[in-house]
Specification:
Blueprint (H helix, E strand, L loop, with lengths): L5 H14 L5 E2 L6 H9 L5 E2 L2 H7 L11 H14 L5 E4 L8 H12 L5 E5 L12 H18 L4 E5 L2 H4 L4 H15 L3 E3 L6 H11 L4 E4 L8 H6 L4 E3 L3 H20 L11 H13 L1
Parallel strand pairs: 1-8, 2-3, 3-4, 4-5, 5-6, 6-7, 7-8
């Protein structure tokens, strides 16, 4: 695949920033080259990596310790290349680092992959102490911001508060408190994954304005993109949901074959000709 020119990267980053200025857009999450190419063809204006989807594709759990930073950076680079002219946001977990200085080093390396944005979460991965203390979490966002600014990369920084996902007793209030601090520390976009009720989403958007808010839709809650736009959401991602949907089809078909000797699970499969033609055209291009 042709090496990206600096002008291509600059253009992607500028368009990604423009997308966050007004309206609402969907940024789905591919987990490999094939899913990236297909989503690109559907007309989405930006894509994002998924740490869980990638981990599952390697037979590993969604854990920052399951995959090394170098492996993740190689994956991000691969997705950026497969996305062609689309900007890509990297799901960069908690920066693959235990301290703020190392977060900055990791972010510097991530910027070099050609991403248009990246997110840093405040989860520690420790069941007994699941969130970084706020002061330390802020320092990590500041380090990420400084690394981006030093690279002069115009890369959007998303600050993530994981309160809903780790079972915080008051996830909405604590998410707002943390995300407001992350905005002050230099985050361009704010994200509280796990907030999926209308009232929670509305409260986040109102409390964090004018910063753009990302909402994760990881299941069919009944809300549509138009509903989220009406609530003031600027960006919508789906995390590992598309990868899990693909896994669901595979698991169902494999179980029917193993348990019943039935091929019924193969009904509705994408045709060989369709996929071969799709990826053949990409290779030719």
């Amino acid at each position: 695949m042709a090496r990206m020119h600096e002008t291509d990267i600059t253009s992607r980053r500028a368009r990604f920033r423009e997308l966050h200025q007004q309206g609402c857009f969907v940024m789905p999450n591919p987990w490999d080259v094939g899913s990236t190419r297909y989503l690109r063809r559907l007309g989405f204006r930006a894509l994002a990596t998924t740490s869980a989807g990638f981990g599952f594709s390697r037979g590993l759990p969604d854990s920052a310790s399951a995959l090394t930073r170098d492996v993740v950076l190689a994956h991000v680079r691969e997705i950026v290349a497969a996305a062609a002219d689309l900007p890509v946001n990297a799901d960069f977990q908690s920066g693959y680092a235990s301290d703020a200085e190392s977060v900055g080093e990791s972010v510097h390396l991530c910027v070099q992959t050609g991403v248009a944005g990246l997110s840093i979460e405040d989860s520690t991965g420790d069941a007994d102490h699941p969130l970084f203390d706020l002061a330390e979490a802020v320092e990590r966002i500041q380090a990420a911001r400084a690394a981006i600014d030093a690279a002069d990369g115009d890369v959007l920084l998303t600050g993530r508060a994981e309160c809903f996902l780790v079972g915080h007793p008051d996830p909405l209030r604590e998410s707002i408190r943390r995300l407001q601090a992350y905005a002050t520390a230099g985050a361009d976009v704010l994200f509280a994954p796990g907030a999926c009720e209308r009232d929670d989403i509305r409260a986040l958007v109102t409390s964090l304005s004018p910063k753009p808010v990302n909402v994760l839709m990881s299941s069919n809650t009944g809300l549509r993109v138009a509903d989220l736009a009406e609530l003031g959401v600027r960006r919508v991602s789906v995390g590992s949901a598309l990868a899990r949907t693909a896994w669901a089809g595979f698991i169902r078909a494999a179980r029917q074959l193993a348990d019943d000797g039935s091929f019924a699970g193969l009904d509705g499969a994408a045709s060989f000709a369709e996929l071969n033609a799709l990826f053949g055209e990409d290779s030719a291009g």
